[in-house]
Structures are given as structure tokens and as C-alpha cells.
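--- STAGE predict ---
source: upstream dedup step, 1 unique chain passed
mode: sequence only
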Amino acid sequence: MEKAPGSTSFKLARRALLALADTHGFELVCHEGELWVTADGLAGDVVLAPGERLTLRGHPRIVISALSAARFDARSCCGNTPVRLLASRCAGVLLDRIARWRHAPLASYPATLLR
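--- STAGE serialize ---
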């Protein structure tokens, strides 16, 4: 089975816990064992068996418990494509530059006098 780009593989021993957080949500793919998934804001818990996958949109925090020794992949979903990541970086740089010029006294000086 091919691993999806941007995914991370995890191995959990029986009864081990793993907490994950991402503002966009997750896609989980169980390869071995059984996983008990609890998501912030989800009405109920979900148990994943081998070969099953679960997409959680809008659930930024999840806790995964291994009911038996398990191996699974987790990847951020719902908007973390390379184009969106690049756009968020560019927007951050632009907002930083705008914030530097927000102060009226400094912004009123010509750029040639600010050396």
C-alpha cells in the first residue's frame, strides 16, 4: 500500500495513547491492529480495524488509543495542500510588513529619511 504524501506513520503498543492536533482535521488509515479514536466535538467514538480509514474535518484535536498493537498513517487534511501552505506563508509575510507600517508617526516620514 502506498503512503500518501505528507502523511506520518505511527506504531502504538497495546493500550498506548497518542494525541494529535491540527486546525484542518485529519485522515487516519489503519494498517494493523485496532484503533479507538476520540475527536474533540465528535458525537461518539470510532473504532478502526485494519484497512479502514477515517476523515475528521473540523475536529482539530484527537486522541488515538490502540486496543491492540497497531500501525497507522495520519495526515493533515482539508486544506494543507502545498499551494495553501505557500499562500499562508506569503500572507504571513505580507501581514508582518503591513503591521510594521501601522504606526502613524513612522509611516508619515518619507522612506529616504528612515535610514
